[in-house]
Automatic annotation (TrEMBL):
The chain crosses the membrane at residues 23-42, 54-77. It comes from Leptolyngbya subtilissima DQ-A4. This is Uncharacterized protein. Keywords: Membrane, Transmembrane, Transmembrane helix.
Length: 85
């Protein structure tokens, strides 16, 4: 008899949720990267090119975290920890 941890249907059900949470974590990281220059007073205008660049960074970070998973998030957190912030 299989335990609930060995149930293949639960693994299939958790996979989209895991991918979505990885993407959300990466996108949040990308949003942080976009927000850092704004916190230091760097001028940011709402031109379409600037919005497209910010969206590309956010979506790129989300896709990277989805593909490589927790390793990317751990590496970024470790790097941020070394900065002393």
């Amino acid at each position: 008899m299989m335990s609930s941890d060995d149930d293949p249907t639960q693994i299939a059900q958790r996979s989209p949720l895991r991918w979505a949470s990885r993407f959300a974590g990466g996108a949040a990281l990308g949003a942080l990267l976009v927000a850092l220059p704004l916190s230091y007073g760097s001028p940011f205008s709402l031109e379409p090119i600037q919005i497209a660049k910010a969206g590309f960074v956010i979506l790129g970070c989300g896709a990277t975290a989805t593909i490589w998973g927790q390793a990317v998030i751990n590496a970024v957190i470790e790097s941020l920890g070394k900065t002393g912030l």
